[in-house]
Amino acid sequence: MHVVANAAMSADGKLSSRRREQVVISGPEDFARVDALRASCDAVLVGVGTVLADDPHLTVEDPKLRDERRARGDPTHPARVVVDTRARTPPGSRILDDEASTYVLVGEAAPEDHRAALREAGAHLLETGDDRVDLTSGFAALEAEGIDRLMVEGGGEILFSVFEAGLVDELSVFLGSLVIGGREAPTLADGTGFVEEFPDLALESVERIDDGVLCRYAVE
Ligand SMILES: NC(=O)c1ccc[n+]([C@@H]2O[C@H](COP(=O)([O-])OP(=O)(O)OC[C@H]3O[C@@H](n4cnc5c(N)ncnc54)[C@H](OP(=O)(O)O)[C@@H]3O)[C@@H](O)[C@H]2O)c1
Ligand SMILES: Nc1nc(=O)c(N)c(NC[C@H](O)[C@H](O)[C@H](O)COP(=O)(O)O)[nH]1
């Protein structure tokens, strides 16, 4: 499986504010780039923290990109994946509508009634890990479902864990020209953080788009 991590952050490295509400950092060019990146993938993954904060849809906006997907025999939209140990995703979430298929990676800890509600809402549940989703075996289960190219769209906890597990091949970061601040605000990689053996990145390109900068890295 090829994994591309993508996020937008403020000049001070924040993904959103301490309120954990969605902050628009990208401009139209970057959102169009993100849309094309989604369209190039078999699935788009976020953590339950992002679902609860943003209620994202994670589909492809541009009709031309949707047509191109169908023309090459792919579903109109990539599948959506939520990493959600205890199946806390609200059944009414936009990510569970019938515009695209949705997988929920749950842990043994997920209560049966929550699981049943998600199945009822049309989600495909994949169990991996006990009190936290095991991303390595979760990604293997997704690969067995035919997902070869996966986009990880955050948030900070998930991004740290996919780096920690050595699962990321590419990273693209849009650096927006604003300061959000706040020690409680989510950053590009939260979790416990690295104290040594920091993941090495090779800078592949730097491009000015909108009023910010897009950096693309290969993960070594
Ligand atoms: N600017 C951007 O590009 C961007 C992108 C995405 C999100 N965001 C922002 O980021 C914030 C959400 O980020 P977040 O860090 O709070 O949430 P998150 O990373 O989306 O989700 C984290 C949650 O995932 C679950 N999880 C299960 N297994 C995990 C594992 N192995 N590793 C890590 N997490 C695991 C945990 O909840 P359980 O233990 O209950 O399962 C954890 O609390 C929101 O404010 C959103 O607006 C910004
Ligand atoms: N590229 C990017 N720039 C931003 O300024 C921003 N706030 C996000 N945030 C990512 C997060 O995952 C959002 O929840 C989804 O971008 C919403 O996705 P929809 O439009 O509902 O499909 N992503």
What does this structure look like?
- Helices cover 25% and strands 25% of the residues.
- It is of the alpha/beta class and 220 residues long.
- It has a single domain, classed as Dihydrofolate Reductase, subunit A (3-Layer(aba) Sandwich).
- The ligand Nc1nc(=O)c(N)c(NC[C@H](O)[C@H](O)[C@H](O)COP(=O)(O)O)[nH]1 binds next to helix 2.
Blueprint of the fold:
Blueprint: E1 2-9, H1 28-39, E2 43-47, H2 48-54, H3 63-71, E3 79-83, E4 102-106, H4 112-120, E5 124-127, H5 135-144, E6 149-152, H6 156-164, E7 170-175, E8 201-209, E9 212-219
Parallel strand pairs: 1-6, 1-7, 2-3, 2-6, 3-4, 4-5
Antiparallel strand pairs: 7-9, 8-9
The protein binds NADP nicotinamide-adenine-dinucleotide phosphate (NAP) and the ligand Nc1nc(=O)c(N)c(NC[C@H](O)[C@H](O)[C@H](O)COP(=O)(O)O)[nH]1.
In short:
The chain is α/β, with parallel strands linked by helices and 220 residues long. The chain has helices at 28-39, 48-54, 63-71, 112-120, 135-144, 156-164, and strands spanning 2-9, 43-47, 79-83, 102-106, 124-127, 149-152, 170-175, 201-209, 212-219.
Features:
220 residues, alpha/beta, Dihydrofolate Reductase, subunit A, nine-stranded mixed beta sheet, 6 helices, globular, binds NADP nicotinamide-adenine-dinucleotide phosphate, binds ligand HJL, RibD_C
What is the CATH superfamily? Dihydrofolate Reductase, subunit A
CATH architecture: 3-Layer(aba) Sandwich
CATH topology: Dihydrofolate Reductase, subunit A
Helical residue percent band: 25-40%
Q: Which kinds of small molecule does this entry bind, naming each only once?
A: NADP nicotinamide-adenine-dinucleotide phosphate, the ligand Nc1nc(=O)c(N)c(NC[C@H](O)[C@H](O)[C@H](O)COP(=O)(O)O)[nH]1
The number of E-state strands comes to 9
* Strand line-up in the sheet with most strands: 5-4-3-2-6-1-7-9-8
SSE succession: EHEHHEEHEHEHEEE
Rounded Rg = 17 Å
Spans of at least 5 consecutive residues whose pLDDT stays below 50 are none
User: End-to-end span in angstroms?
Assistant: 16 Å
**What do the pLDDT scores average to?**
98
Briefly note the structural class of the backbone: alpha/beta
Per CATH, the class reads Alpha Beta
- The gross shape turns out to be globular
How big a fraction of the residues is strand? 15-25%
Give me the number of helical elements: 6
Number of domains in the coordinates?
Answer: 1
Largest sheet: 9 strands, mixed
Protein name: 2,5-diamino-6-(ribosylamino)-4(3H)-pyrimidinone 5'-phosphate reductase
InterPro entries: DHFR-like_dom_sf (IPR024072), Rib_reduct_arc (IPR006401), RibD_C (IPR011549), RibDG_C (IPR002734), Riboflavin_Biosynth_HTPR (IPR050765)
Organism: Halococcus hamelinensis 100A6
GO molecular function: 5-amino-6-(5-phosphoribosylamino)uracil reductase activity; NADP binding
